[in-house]
Amino acid sequence: MTSAIIGYARTSTIDQTAGLEAQLRDLEAMGCQRIFKEQLSSVDTKRPELERAIDYVREGDTLVVTKLDRLARSMTHLTEITGKLKAKGVELKVLALNLDTSTPTGKLMLNLLGSIAEFERELMLERQREGIAKAKAEGKYHGRVPTARRKTDDILRLKAEGKTVDAITKELGISRSSIFRVLREA
Q: Does domain 5-118 have CATH number 3.40.50.1000?
């Protein structure tokens, strides 16, 4: 049975094409025979291409990612993914860390780094919540004002004048999805 090297690449948004291209370049240079890629936020609970990659790999294969944060959104998620891979007899390589779970040191480092990354994220979120609470207490924070909602009258007027959604988008500087949402609710 021949083992395969399978790659997985992810960026948070479709605007990050350079980041995706860099990941693909690195995965190809690593010798990945097949690469699964997707562009969606780390908070999205469904990652169809990651699931396809995990389903695709077979015993003896290696799943390769460029960075740990491209793979998992939390330590719990990382543990879940590595558990699935281990159950299938698949190793994990993280290029940026030179980490390989086929070694005992690699397995230890993966758990340590995953825990540290989750800890850093929790600290960042805590500081963010504290900053928002302080700004609210000082009357300086009111949240994000929904742009499209403020322009509802303009959207409805322009649509009544026969303007296309693309024309409204250009004129008002708001997204197509926001315009459709306002039109649906009107």
A: no
Half-sphere exposure of 10 toward its Cβ, with a 13 Å CA cutoff? 23
3-state secondary structure 34-62: EEEEEECCCCCCCCHHHHHHHHHCCCCCE
Contact 106, 100 (CB under 8 A): yes
Q: Is 6 exposed, middle or buried (0-12, 13-18, 19+ CB in 10 A)?
A: buried
Burial class (CB in 10 A: 0-12, 13-18, 19+), 94: buried
CA angle 129, 178, 131 (to 5 degrees): 10
Residue 24, φ and ψ in degrees, nearest 5: -60, -40
Q: What is the mean pLDDT of each run of 10 residues along the chain (186 residues)?
A: 90 78 95 93 77 96 93 84 94 92 89 82 89 89 76 90 90 87 86
Active centre residues (catalytic): 12
